[in-house]
Amino acid sequence: MYSRPPLRLEIGCAFELNAPAPTSAVLQVAPHEDDRATLDAASWDTTAAHHQYIDRYGNRCERFALPPGPSRIEYRAQVSTVDEPDEVALAAPEITPAELPDQLLHWVMPSRFCQPDELGAPAWEIFGDISPGWTRVQAVCDWVHGHLEYVPGSSNPWTTAADAYRSQQGVCRDYAHLAITFCRALNIPARYVFGYLPDIGIPLADEVMDFAAWFEAYLGGRWYTFDARTNSPRVGRVVVGRGRDAVDVAMMTSFGSVELAGFRVQADPMG
Question: Which of 34-43, 70-79, 81-90, 141-150 has the lowest mean pLDDT?
Fold first, then answer.
């Protein structure tokens, strides 16, 4: 039970696109049907034809038919979410692989950007002697937070967790990918999360607001939020998508050449 009144947020984003020919595209920017957030109102502002579908992970996806030339797509929504920081459960235990439910084994396997098979040796060398459970996952976050330097533009859409591990720099998705990879190598189910993260309870950031990436680890029979980039509990997260890694929750996927000429993100408290 959450004791405080809901936190109401205004979220959204806008895209300025240019397609040389008619092109299909999928945007993932609408909130996931999450137990911490309720979608109160939402609208799309665009002349491009579009419709919604739900993918295999329960993510809301919007499929567009972009005409040739410039297009503008704007999404706006009002959301009620929990006005409390990410939960900390120091006693949450790990579940051994033998006891994991069948459907969770999927979340300890390698994926395109998260390679526990490649980074298994350093994962066990660094974290093998740490007490299993919350303490170990938090140790992973602490280590990744200290190992990587946040450098905008230092990675690209093809950068893997192993690439970030070697280069020692990246952006929020690289922090999430590397932490997920270490958790999976330690047989802890972990999944990638992408969404809106307002600047609540922290100094205002110097950089322009963007979408954020973090991850969830399965401990003690449920999923918990962790963030190796910020490495501290935050208020107001709004989940857009969950998946194996960034492939499953790409902000935009186009089936043809599309230029992103402009882009902005908003996530602000209302009232």
Answer: 34-43
> What is the model's pTM?
0.95
Where residue 153 falls (left for φ over 0; alpha for ψ -120 to 50; beta otherwise) is: left
**Is 1 part of any domain?**
no
* CATH number of the domain that residue 12 is part of: 2.60.40.2250
CA distance 242 to 255: 21
User: How does the average pLDDT of the chain come out, rounded?
Assistant: 95
Q: How many CB atoms lie within 10 A of CB 50?
A: 16
Question: For the chain, what percentages of helix, strand and coil (3-state, to nearest 5) are there?
Answer: 25, 35, 40
Length of the chain, in residues = 271
Domain that holds residue 198: 97-246
Beta strands in the chain (DSSP E): 7-19, 23-27, 37-45, 49-54, 60-66, 69-81, 149-150, 169-170, 190-196, 212-219, 222-226, 238-243, 252-254, 259-269
Total count of domains within the chain? 2
